[in-house]
Amino acid sequence: MRSIDLDTSSNSVELHIFLDRSSVEMFMNQGEQVITSRIYPSETSLGVKLFAENGSVELEELSIWSLEDIWK
């Protein structure tokens, strides 16, 4: 698991997550902070979790788009 420190003085964070079969990229506040990581999920792994340590988080808006498989 990775973590970063964000400036939360505005009480809002814009988060874009790009997830595929073997990688995840997260862009916070239009690239102010970026995390890129390889992932190795099992075939039964489903979903994404959003959480805050030592605090709370409220999701104001969520949009999801599916991409076509380039290997088909």
Automatic annotation (TrEMBL):
Keywords: Hydrolase. GO terms for biological process: sucrose catabolic process. One of its GO terms (cellular component) is cytoplasm. Residues 7-66 form the Glycosyl hydrolase family 32 C-terminal domain. The keyword Methyltransferase does not apply. GO terms for molecular function: sucrose alpha-glucosidase activity. The keyword Hydrolase applies. Pfam families: Glyco_hydro_32C (PF08244). InterPro entries: ConA-like_dom_sf (IPR013320), Glyco_hydro_32_C (IPR013189). SUPFAM superfamilies: Concanavalin A-like lectins/glucanases. This is Sucrose-6-phosphate hydrolase. It comes from Vibrio ishigakensis.
